[in-house]
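user: At home tonight, take the chain set out below, taking as long as you need, and be ready to discuss the fold:
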Amino acid sequence: MFIESPKAEVAKTQEETYNFLNDLSNFRQLMPDNIDKFEVLSENRFLFALKGMPEIVLEKKEESPYNKLVLGAASDKLPFTLTADIIELSTEKSEVTLSFNGEFNAMMAMMIKTPITNFIKTLSTNLAKV
């Protein structure tokens, strides 16, 4: 299952945007209002839970300074990645596209598609506001 967010225009340079996302504690600012728990576990891992949903631990899987950051599920039960592709628009602006990619059976994909779509849309919208 592949889901892509609308492009978020960020009033930061490509490097500043990358550094913001690379500091996992900043994801707290991007989370939806219905966040129930958020905890940075290490420099490379954080845990979050939305109300009524199980806790999810994300960890850095791949880093390409200033261009791309890939986070992935720390558990093999729900294998997925969340990728931020960062493009420089000008000296003071960048653009971020978030994409979710996961391997799920048809039933699971049907159940989580709408919540995941809404979740990455919220991350993208909140990123444009920072």
Remarks:
- The two ends are 28 Å apart (CA to CA).
- Strands lie at 2-4, 8-10, 35-42, 45-50, 56-64, 68-73, 80-90, 93-102.
